[in-house]
Design a protein that fits this description.
The chain has about 170 residues and is α+β, with helices and mostly antiparallel strands. It has helices at about 5-15, 25-45, 65-80, 125-130, 140-150; strands spanning about 25, 50-55, 60, 85-95, 100-105, 155-160, 165-170. The longest helix is centred in the first third of the chain and has 19 residues, at about 25-45.
Length: about 170
């Protein structure tokens, strides 16, 4: 029997995800498309998205659709799990030969004991479920898949009730 992983891989390829077509992707374009998708939700909730040091001229060799989906999912989470009045901060800089993307929020946080589980398909932490019933728990598993397909790395740090910080490192082109 196929596992959930097999099915997601298959589905991803079927709809053209996971690096089938790679080009020199300009960060500016990824950020613009992403903001078009998430800004309305932030405005509706009263969460401010701040850009700190976003170097739009940076380029990643990758798949535009995938990179957009990766950033949309991370910003969607940050806004979704941050109460009204909170702040989400995005920064994108080149460090050595890598593009470092940081998404920080002042939201509900993730319990320490659950930090290693959130990239697993369908996993949602207890405090997230209490904060909103909307979510399949698939977003981060897709993000992880995309980061892996681009030979990058993703890490998370969080303090319960204070906020969460995701860091993605991708090879710059
Ligand atoms: P979906 O993305 O499928 O709509 P989801 O957002 O709940 O649902 P994921 O994006 O996969 O699922 O995230 C998995 C879990 O990780 C969340 O349910 C939540 O427990 C935790 N999480 C992710 N991002 C944050 C964040 N910024 N703040 C607090 N918890 C988070
Ligand atoms: Mg999500």
């Amino acid at each position: 029997l196929p596992t959930i992983n097999d099915i997601l891989d298959w589905a991803g390829r079927k709809v053209g995800l996971l690096g089938i077509e790679t080009t020199n992707v300009l960060i500016r374009d990824v950020v613009k498309d992403t903001f078009d998708a998430v800004q309305w939700m932030a405005d509706t909730k009263g969460v401010r998205i701040k850009q700190v040091l976003v170097d739009g001229s940076l380029k990643i060799m990758g798949n535009m659709g995938d990179l957009r989906k990766m950033l949309v999912n991370l910003l969607d989470n940050a806004v979704k799990y941050t109460p009204s009045g909170g702040i989400v901060t995005l920064s994108i800089q080149k460090i050595n030969n890598e593009v470092k993307i940081e998404i920080a929020d002042t939201g509900i946080g993730i319990p320490e004991s659950e930090l290693d589980k959130i990239f697993t398909e369908f996993y949602r932490s207890e405090n997230a479920k209490q904060s909103t019933q909307y979510g399949t728990g698939l977003g981060l598993s897709i993000v992880k898949r995309i980061v892996d397909a681009h030979k990058g790395n993703i890490s998370v740090s969080s303090k319960l009730g204070k906020g969460t910080n995701f860091t993605v490192l991708l090879p710059a082109s």
